[in-house]
Design a protein that fits this description.
This protein has 270 residues and is of the alpha/beta class. It is built from 4 helices and 28 strands.
Length: 270
């Protein structure tokens, strides 16, 4: 059974799944798809060409699929916003659609977007991501699975935040953050391995140990990054996790939020 409040406005082309609840003063645009068992509490705006997966809980005053704020956006361009399953999207979150014709902004599954957080045009947010209160993503940002973005932090457009990484609250991120690391500061620098985050994401003690050792090779020894990457490859030739870190280094377009040696810490003993 679908419940649509009489004070909600739902476009005739919208597709609403079974057992959905559309609360008062919600506005659902054309060609919107909402999966079964999802709840829009009240005052939620979902613009055209947006899909929302199953079992999602969307709180008041959320806006999803709103037109990109990018000045390059061409009016009447068809762009998309794709939201996965089992997401919790809290009050006043804004998720904007893509900019270029046919492009999309995507959010994965099992994410928790806290109040006032913002996902800009063409972002790609992975699965099991937490964005704390008022965390802000610029356009084209990529957030890996199991990442945690601290409250009041801001991430520069085109930055990549890696798998199981964490950005500390009130950070200004202007360069890429490697998988499995914690970055914080103004501007942000990678500080330590995200041991707790890795454990919560299902990584074991052996994984944590090899990632920590690789991190030390990459950033704590007196050698150029190219030499450090080569050494890490030699020491961990069969490590998928270390290879993810190396791939992130090789693919970086904005450079790395490299550790500030004056404030470097190690979160566990040798």
């Amino acid at each position: 059974m679908i419940h649509i409040d009489p004070q909600a406005v739902v476009h005739e082309t919208a597709e609403i799944g079974d057992n959905c609840s559309i609360g008062p003063f919600c506005t659902i645009g054309a060609h919107v798809k909402i999966g079964e068992n999802s709840r829009l509490r009240s005052h939620v705006v979902v613009e055209a060409h947006t899909s929302i997966g199953t079992d999602s809980d969307i709180f008041p005053f959320v806006t999803i699929g709103i037109q990109s704020q990018d000045t390059k956006y061409v009016p009447d361009t068809v762009t998309y916003t794709n939201i996965g399953d089992r997401n919790v999207i809290r009050e006043f979150v804004s998720i904007h659609s893509g900019t270029e014709d046919g492009s999309a902004t995507t959010v994965g599954n099992d994410c928790n977007l806290l109040a006032h957080s913002h996902v800009a045009h063409n972002c790609s947010v992975g699965n099991h991501v937490v964005m704390s209160h008022a965390a802000t993503l610029g356009g084209h940002v990529v957030i890996g699975d199991h990442a945690n973005i601290g409250g009041l932090s801001a991430i520069h457009q085109f930055c990549h935040i890696g798998l199981a990484s964490m950005v500390g609250g009130m950070s200004r991120v202007i360069q890429d953050v490697l998988p499995f690391t914690i970055a914080e500061g103004f501007p942000a620098h990678m500080r330590v391995i995200n041991k707790v985050g890795m454990e919560r994401a299902g990584f074991n003690a052996s994984d944590v140990t090899e990632v920590r050792k690789a991190f030390r090779i990459l950033f704590m020894r007196e050698m150029r990054l190219e030499e450090a990457v080569k050494q890490a490859k030699e020491e961990f030739p069969n490590s998928t996790n270390v290879q993810l870190m190396i791939d992130a280094i090789d693919g970086s377009q904005r450079g790395l939020a490299r550790p500030d040696s004056a404030m470097f810490e190690i979160n566990v003993s040798e």
